[in-house]
Amino acid sequence: MSAAHRHSPTFYRVYRKKSTEGFHSVPYIVAVFSCMLWIYYAYVKTDSILLITINSFGVFIEIAYITIYLVYAPKKTRVFSMRIFVLLNVVVFAAIILLTQLLFTGSIRVKVLGWICVGFSVGVFAAPLSVIVRTETVAMVSR
Fold first, then answer.
1. To the nearest whole number, what is the mean pLDDT of the chain?
2. pTM, whole model, 2 decimals?
Protein backbone atom coordinates (compact mmCIF):
# COMPACT_ATOMS: atom_id res chain seq x y z
CA MET A 1 0.00 0.00 0.00
CA SER A 2 2.82 2.40 0.72
CA ALA A 3 4.09 1.99 -2.85
CA ALA A 4 0.77 3.21 -4.24
CA HIS A 5 0.48 5.92 -1.59
CA ARG A 6 3.90 7.40 -2.38
CA HIS A 7 2.48 8.92 -5.58
CA SER A 8 -0.13 10.98 -3.70
CA PRO A 9 1.94 14.21 -3.51
CA THR A 10 2.66 14.02 -7.25
CA PHE A 11 -1.01 13.70 -8.14
CA TYR A 12 -2.11 16.31 -5.66
CA ARG A 13 0.33 18.63 -7.44
CA VAL A 14 -1.01 17.63 -10.89
CA TYR A 15 -4.57 18.26 -9.67
CA ARG A 16 -3.70 21.57 -8.01
CA LYS A 17 -1.76 22.94 -11.02
CA LYS A 18 -4.09 21.35 -13.60
CA SER A 19 -1.00 20.18 -15.50
CA THR A 20 1.09 17.01 -15.69
CA GLU A 21 4.24 19.18 -15.74
CA GLY A 22 6.34 16.65 -17.60
CA PHE A 23 5.49 13.72 -15.34
CA HIS A 24 5.25 10.42 -17.21
CA SER A 25 2.33 8.00 -17.04
CA VAL A 26 4.32 4.85 -17.80
CA PRO A 27 5.30 4.03 -14.18
CA TYR A 28 1.63 4.10 -13.14
CA ILE A 29 0.54 2.03 -16.14
CA VAL A 30 3.27 -0.50 -15.37
CA ALA A 31 2.15 -0.58 -11.73
CA VAL A 32 -1.38 -1.55 -12.84
CA PHE A 33 0.10 -4.31 -15.00
CA SER A 34 2.21 -5.59 -12.11
CA CYS A 35 -0.80 -5.67 -9.78
CA MET A 36 -2.87 -7.47 -12.42
CA LEU A 37 -0.13 -10.08 -12.85
CA TRP A 38 -0.03 -10.71 -9.10
CA ILE A 39 -3.84 -10.99 -8.95
CA TYR A 40 -3.76 -13.56 -11.75
CA TYR A 41 -0.96 -15.44 -9.98
CA ALA A 42 -2.98 -15.45 -6.74
CA TYR A 43 -6.06 -16.69 -8.60
CA VAL A 44 -4.12 -19.57 -10.17
CA LYS A 45 -2.28 -20.39 -6.93
CA THR A 46 -5.53 -20.35 -4.89
CA ASP A 47 -5.87 -19.51 -1.20
CA SER A 48 -3.99 -16.23 -1.68
CA ILE A 49 -6.57 -13.74 -0.48
CA LEU A 50 -3.94 -11.31 0.83
CA LEU A 51 -2.26 -11.08 -2.59
CA ILE A 52 -5.63 -10.46 -4.21
CA THR A 53 -6.61 -7.85 -1.62
CA ILE A 54 -3.46 -5.74 -1.71
CA ASN A 55 -3.09 -5.88 -5.48
CA SER A 56 -6.78 -5.07 -6.03
CA PHE A 57 -6.21 -1.95 -3.95
CA GLY A 58 -3.11 -1.25 -6.06
CA VAL A 59 -5.09 -1.53 -9.31
CA PHE A 60 -7.78 0.77 -7.93
CA ILE A 61 -5.42 3.49 -6.70
CA GLU A 62 -3.15 3.39 -9.77
CA ILE A 63 -6.15 3.66 -12.11
CA ALA A 64 -7.30 6.66 -10.07
CA TYR A 65 -3.85 8.22 -10.56
CA ILE A 66 -3.89 7.42 -14.29
CA THR A 67 -7.35 8.98 -14.60
CA ILE A 68 -6.14 12.19 -12.95
CA TYR A 69 -3.11 12.14 -15.23
CA LEU A 70 -5.24 11.71 -18.36
CA VAL A 71 -7.58 14.54 -17.38
CA TYR A 72 -4.70 17.04 -17.23
CA ALA A 73 -2.33 15.62 -19.87
CA PRO A 74 -1.95 17.20 -23.32
CA LYS A 75 -3.78 15.31 -26.10
CA LYS A 76 -0.61 13.78 -27.60
CA THR A 77 0.50 12.49 -24.19
CA ARG A 78 -3.01 11.24 -23.40
CA VAL A 79 -3.14 9.22 -26.65
CA PHE A 80 0.34 7.78 -26.03
CA SER A 81 -0.63 6.82 -22.46
CA MET A 82 -3.82 5.09 -23.58
CA ARG A 83 -1.94 3.13 -26.25
CA ILE A 84 0.63 1.95 -23.72
CA PHE A 85 -2.15 1.10 -21.25
CA VAL A 86 -4.04 -1.01 -23.81
CA LEU A 87 -0.87 -2.68 -25.10
CA LEU A 88 0.39 -3.67 -21.67
CA ASN A 89 -2.78 -4.18 -19.64
CA VAL A 90 -4.93 -5.74 -22.33
CA VAL A 91 -2.76 -7.28 -25.08
CA VAL A 92 0.28 -8.44 -23.08
CA PHE A 93 -1.81 -9.45 -20.07
CA ALA A 94 -4.20 -11.46 -22.29
CA ALA A 95 -1.22 -13.11 -24.00
CA ILE A 96 0.23 -14.15 -20.63
CA ILE A 97 -3.11 -15.61 -19.56
CA LEU A 98 -3.57 -17.42 -22.86
CA LEU A 99 -0.04 -18.84 -22.98
CA THR A 100 0.02 -19.96 -19.35
CA GLN A 101 -3.40 -21.59 -19.69
CA LEU A 102 -2.50 -23.39 -22.92
CA LEU A 103 1.11 -24.38 -22.26
CA PHE A 104 1.23 -25.23 -18.55
CA THR A 105 -0.83 -27.09 -15.96
CA GLY A 106 -1.04 -27.31 -12.20
CA SER A 107 2.03 -26.52 -10.15
CA ILE A 108 4.14 -25.82 -13.25
CA ARG A 109 1.70 -23.04 -14.23
CA VAL A 110 1.99 -21.56 -10.73
CA LYS A 111 5.80 -21.66 -10.87
CA VAL A 112 5.97 -20.10 -14.35
CA LEU A 113 3.56 -17.34 -13.32
CA GLY A 114 5.53 -16.79 -10.12
CA TRP A 115 8.74 -16.34 -12.11
CA ILE A 116 7.01 -13.97 -14.54
CA CYS A 117 5.70 -11.90 -11.62
CA VAL A 118 9.04 -11.84 -9.80
CA GLY A 119 10.97 -11.04 -12.97
CA PHE A 120 8.63 -8.22 -13.83
CA SER A 121 8.69 -6.86 -10.26
CA VAL A 122 12.50 -6.84 -10.22
CA GLY A 123 12.44 -4.92 -13.50
CA VAL A 124 9.93 -2.42 -12.15
CA PHE A 125 12.07 -1.67 -9.11
CA ALA A 126 15.37 -1.76 -11.00
CA ALA A 127 14.28 0.80 -13.63
CA PRO A 128 14.29 3.79 -11.23
CA LEU A 129 17.64 2.66 -9.85
CA SER A 130 19.10 2.68 -13.36
CA VAL A 131 17.97 6.31 -13.70
CA ILE A 132 19.73 7.17 -10.43
CA VAL A 133 22.94 5.43 -11.54
CA ARG A 134 22.85 7.01 -15.01
CA THR A 135 22.04 10.58 -13.89
CA GLU A 136 23.63 10.43 -10.42
CA THR A 137 20.55 12.16 -9.01
CA VAL A 138 17.17 11.16 -7.62
CA ALA A 139 15.44 14.30 -8.92
CA MET A 140 13.96 12.69 -12.06
CA VAL A 141 12.95 9.33 -10.58
CA SER A 142 9.32 10.34 -10.01
CA ARG A 143 8.98 12.19 -13.32
1. 84
2. 0.82
